[in-house]
Design brief:
7 helices; GNAT family N-acetyltransferase; Ribosomal_N-acetyltransferase; globular; Acyl_CoA_acyltransferase; 185 residues; GNAT_dom
Length: 185
Amino acid sequence: MYKAIVNDDTYISILEDRHANELYHLIDSSRESIRQWLQFPDLTHKVEDTRAFISRSLKRFANNDGYWAGIWYKEQIAGSIGFLGIDWEAGRTEIGYWLGSPFEGKGLMTSACRTFVAHAFHDLRLRKVEIGAAVGNIRSRAIPERLGFTQEGIIRNYERLHDQYLDRVIYGLTQQEWLDQQAMS
């Protein structure tokens, strides 16, 4: 299955059933930091929940409609990144991601997103990639900003999380903008 080398210490690979235990334990050990911005830790109570998530992701992969991959750092699962769905007619996708708390601040997610963006534009031949984050999630927002995405807007009251409504900022990057960046570097 899909595997991409990010650097000497890091790679990305499609999540498979055999990763369920390791992924669940990372979620469980990082539950408080992840749930601050995402709902899924509150819905993940046992390994079988993680296994069901992986199964749904593999079905989406088989249907050519996005997928989730694990991010491994020094042979340990550090987090996950995914194409949340692919609009083939528009040539567009959105990237979602999260890291376990022991792996934050190492540049892993920026590197993983860079790899996913390159895959979207070069291999999948998409025309646009989007990333959304809660307005208050400064660390998550820094990733598309570092990668040259443009802030396209804010969706007010986008989601309800822990009895509060969060606004969501949307970033976008076109294939041509990415190619121009690559030519300049």
